[in-house]
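notes to self, project folder thing:

trying the whole complex as one job this time. last attempt i did each chain seperately and stitching them together was a nightmare. two parts in total, labels are on each line so i dont mix them up again. if this works i'll redo the older ones the same way
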Amino acid sequence: MHKLLTDEPGKKTFLLGNEAIARGAVEAGIAFASTYPGTPSSELSLNFFQMSKESDLYFEYSTNEKVALEVSAAAANCGVRSMAVMKHVGLNVASDALMTLAYVGVKGGMVVLTADDPFMFSSQNEQDNRYYAKISGLPMLEPSSVAEAKEMVGYAFELSEQLAEPVLFRTTTRINHSTGVVQFGKIRAPKTKGNFTKDPLNLVTVPAVSRKLHVKLLEHYDQAMALAEKTPYNFIEGQGVWGIVCNGVSYGYVTDAVKELNLTDRVRILRLGFSHPIPEQMVKKFVGECEKVLIVEEGEPYMEESIKALAQEAGLTLPIRGKGSDLFTRLYEYNPSQVRDVISRYFGVEDRTPAPVDVSDVPELPQRPPTLCAGCSHRATFYEVRKATEGMETIFPTDIGCYTLGLLPPLSAADFLICMGSSVGTAAGFSKVTDKKVVAFIGDSTFFHSGIPGLVNAVFNNHNLTLIILDNGTTAMTGHQPHPGVDMKQLDMDGYGQVSIEAVVRAVGVPHVTVIKPYKVQKSIEAIKEAVNFKGVSVVISQETCALYARALKLPKKKPFAVGDKCKNHKDCINSLACPAFYIWEDRVKIDATLCTGCAVCAQICPERAIVPAKLSS
Amino acid sequence: MEPTRLIIVAVGGQGNLLASSVLGEAALIADIPVRMSEIHGMAQRGGVVESALVFGDARSTIISDGEADILVGFEPAETLRALSKCNKDSVVVTNTAPLMPFTVNIGQGRYPDLAELQRLIREKTARLIAFNATSLAKEAGNVLAVNMVLLGSLIQTGVLPLSTDHVKEAMKRKTKQAFLDSNLKAFQMGYDAAAQAA
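result (full assembly):
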């Protein structure tokens, strides 16, 4: 049985934040979940996926976050408890659905999980998604620890049903990817079948209906604020005339700092866990009892803006600070000593914690940048595109996935990236205003997510571009989740359809389509040459299973290669491919047989044909 | 209980996350509060994996520069890279067997001199335990047991509020049955290596 389905109330276990949230949802009787994978939320969905195979939970990997949100919104409108899970930038994609879902509301509890990524451990920006609560008018919950996250998810479902609105559940990487001790509670039996009652005058958002629904949303907002004033998730602790307001993981850093600085008798803390709508009376009372207030929140001055406005309304003139060059930054994630340092300086107390060792005399250390795996088919395709476009002036718009790592030399196959699906959309603009050859790269999962509209646009507007679809048969970057092009029978799962990328590309009317096997170097280069010389839209689908995924699927292994006697040591292989299976030993190129996957790409580009199957060379 | 802070650094694939989860389980068995945080997004693609474990009464799950009571490095250059997590009272345990970064393999960047690396760490911290954990793991019959060797050394230092029994019990629960014997052997060899280094 899946460990999160165990019906042992009271059991304590050490869980990842994402597992704790999944367990909280199970205890709350979740019956329906949907997602598009994205770090740091991916393990949450993975657990739903696993549990759905052995319980009544319905789970799906949807094609993108907007679809995921819509699918769950419909389930919730039939009274079924549902959850849509995504990373912070995923909510941008889903935001169109979210804004008006707030007007329509829900019948069964619906939680929209947004996992923010301060510091951008694995994201393209560090936007602060708390503003989505403000712009949508929806209630928002923010846990401060793994254990609290589990409890709070249960409350989120109740709150959603109480207000008849979806609830935003906002985490940050340090909640999703922290591990803590969690105590299991009782599992509520899920209600898996819903009932839809036709009610177009409340559910079909034509202008006349929406004018009425916006009034209802504002009423729900007022009710939500009244609940935020009373909820145990907003609390005040400690005593003193110095005040600190905090949320999320900052609460842990603040309480540790207050203890270490011996300020427990002098500082009172307001922790906001039900943070939108902000509990106005609670905040005004708290601020009114302080002489000086510090706001500790990663990201934007979200609480700070509200709290300053509320203090103004209440006629309070005490210092209230948060962001500023002398205090907290809007950049990156915070850490305990940074928070301790600002608290000590703001309130004028001494910080006596030990200083870090001086590392100024430590020599510069070689970096370990993440790199495409040994035998990664993307490396082969990038090499082949570079060869096929030699002598051409090129622009390579890229997209989001492992292949973004192609930006580094020697592959240097990434010139522009803003978001999921942007490769093909931006390629159109580049091709129109420059005379350069534009070759865009997109992964298979990203193509389904948001690449198709850009491709349709390119066909309709007759842009001159080549799109290389890197089809490695899985959503590799986030941990090998399936996508609509995947053969689910490979995963022993029945009842799924399968969408052919080639059929889609041909169906939208792309005039030049080729499919290549990137491990066949010469043939691929020739096919790419033809595609890039075609005037108009051309698509090359490069098909080869992700090397890591192939290993996970236990597909037959190929024999490793080695550098043999014919090597003249000009190092073309290592210099043009930079496969991590290569290493230099006494100025000679060697291949690490434990890393080599036997893709044989280097063997094909060696002018001496010196790279041969390992057994033959020894 | 006063908090104790541990940083573990490793290269993707060295089993850092399993070691951390054994320690978390051991704390659960010992009924000691514990929280852990890890960054592992790109681990499978050759990156560095860092785990932070905070035992005792604290709420933070990450560890700032200067806050680590003990630093365990599975790879010597990574130990040195993480040195700013330490203060003058910190204890450091490191494997001395390098895993060459790919950048060095292709001629970009130089790997630090191992004697100099140890000198720097020893000079700046309270205590350094450095030995070849990779060869001990091989001796124990499982080259992948570097993580268990270093767990043994970590427990021997006595810095963490965990006993050998707690950790061995956690190993039984968290590691694969087929490897349990070699893992327990590796743990003991690491424990003894640290005792000899004292």
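what i see at first glance: Chain A has 22 helices and 23 strands.
need to look closer tmrw
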